[in-house]
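TICKET #2291
ISSUE: user wants both folds in one file
ATTACHMENT 1:
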Amino acid sequence: GSSLEPEEHSMEPPAMPEEEEEEMPLTTASSPGGCQLFGYVGIEAVLDQMKIKTMKTGFEFNIMVVGQSGLGKSTMVNTLFKSKVSRKASQPGQEERIPKTVQLQSITHVIEEKGVKMKLTVTDTPGFGDQINNENCWDPIIKYINEQYERYLREEILITRKRKIPDTRVHGCVYFVPPTGHWLRPLDLEFMRRLSKIVNVVPVIAKADTLTLEERAEFKQRIQEDLKTHAISVFPQEDFDQDPDDRALNNRIREKIPFAIVGADQEHQVNGKRVLGRKTKWGIIEVENPAHCEFPLLRDLLIRSHLQDLKDITHNVHYESYRVRRLNESNRPVLNPLNGLPAPSPPLHPPARFSVPARTSTLRPAP
């Protein structure tokens, strides 16, 4: 770029020796222009400052996986982050019993890559949809999500609050649809209808290798029709597309939803390379190969391109709506049980009560 320093004139005294020049302060300029410009200064320098600050403090990301047992939830999370971050998939044994109710299990890990630290929390929901009567099986999940909002709200409204509030709110919920090849079940529709209002829901087709390519395409089209018919808004939501470039990218993503994924935590040798995949009689299904499954699209959505969007929508939309509702409930007047009208609120400073001492008369004898 062009130099912003003022031009130097020949009014300066003769050049000083090198030793004396080194002793002069570098920030002093003899011309009336002021301090010298040592390097380029631009607005984009803020990005470097934010990057350095983020690398020092790190960030938090909380993900929830919901689905029936045996759909590969733990394997998918381990494949997503290429490490054992989810609970160990246990084999059914004599000591293990299937939970009768939905139980939530959270595991927190600190992942560091290239100097960037991320506190990852994975919440699993064993027992979801495994019973004959699955009525209200989503209530523990909704309760857990609202409890995290409540915990963040209580920390936020404190007079002397922490400089950085611990964020345990669920940023994304990956819902596993069984690979039936038909329509969505009433359980799937009711769960996504309720949960999409309080959290970012990303539906996926679990174990997509059990379907042929034609069955997979037809199943995805039916799921998209069901979501549109029942007005279920999954992530990325169309209401929050403000930038034209983001809208174009999100439209391409919405055409692929739900993602047909295959999870694997074992490596195999394919053409001299070690790849993650599942070995079958007819070959090896490569997890990271877009021609075999859509797991790379899910990984790019959750980590590479939309991780910050998941956190922003959680804070600015879902948490904000919960915050407004809670504050309105706290300011709502109490109704009188007799007539149903708002009861008069007590005064802030009740009037003081003064006690008047009783008069005492003394009877004196007559003179």
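ATTACHMENT 2:
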Amino acid sequence: MGPWRCLLLLPLLAVALRAQQQQFMEYVERRLTLLEERISQWHDQSSRYSTELRDFKNQVLGMLETAEKEREAMRSEAESAAVRVDRLEREVDYLETQNPAPPCVEVDETLMEKQVATAKQRKNEKYTKLTDCSDTIASVRAMKILKRFGSTSGLWTKDAAGNSEKIYVFDGTANDTVYVFPRMREFTLFSATRKAARIKLPYPWVGTGHLVYNGHLYYIRQQGPFQVIKFSLANKTVVDSSVFPAEEQIPVFGLSPFTYIEVAADEEGLWAIYATKEDEKNICLAKLDPTSLDIEQMWDTPCPRENAEGAFVVCGALHVVYNTRLPSRSRVQCVFDVSGTLAPEDASLVYFPKRYGSHSSMKYSPRERQIYAWDDGYQIIYRMEMKKKLEV
């Protein structure tokens, strides 16, 4: 190609190059315009989202402020309700101490003589067992000191027959008021009686030989002849009463001069442990009908009153606990089996851990196989290890 032809092509190449540059610039401009539109759209959306977020934040703050006000209102209502509940508890405690007028409990002399005659006819007869219980105490498996409450002498127990968890406390050896705690926890944790209901009995009780059995309180009233009062814990009324058919009673335990009759419960039912001047050296035992309070059978036992501090019945066998005038270690030293299925020499010599003084009461729970004891103001639980009787 000659030089003159190259000169002719140069203008054509310049025109083509300018056309390409123009197209490229238009393309770039279109892309920038599209990008600007997208940036503008994102800015609008971001601004809208920011406004919505701010509105939502303000709404949440308003809701939190309202919730805080409602929480304060609820707290105030709860405090007011707690005050009303506390006042209601005090009013209920007050109402529970109020009882209807004491019923007239008259002593039928003819009926009492008949009961004494019937009981004496069956005195010292062999007892026909109602259950197949053949256990006796082997040893004290464990001891637990719950607390110290009230006087040096007293009684605490559960219902020996029912499933109630209530704790019944008789403070002292003569009074007319029983404290009732709803559960063991309330009795253990609280030193005062604020958590306890109070039952004011129609007649004062004496001693520490009382019993709670199948929703009823069997307690000893002293006014002339000793009476066993059957008191309904549900209705707060006297259901029945009976003059104990034993003449010239004396304290049943040598170391507990305030207890004349010990009402006890075991797997067989209700028992009465007592003593009379007729045989003032030894302890007597009687089987009670829990419904009518009649004496079903009576026994003179070989267990001496001297240095005795308490007693309980297990599977138809009387266990008498002894100590010394100067408090030492309590021990079961005499066992009397009314059915004759336990030889005296086969009965275990059971020792209780030495604590503070001597027991003013010992209540056996056949349902739990443990003893609720009151030792110089301390409330103690003894868990018993049982074994089978070796029949004679």
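RESOLUTION: both attachments delivered.
EXTRA DETAIL ON ATTACHMENT 2: The two ends are 148 Å apart (CA to CA).
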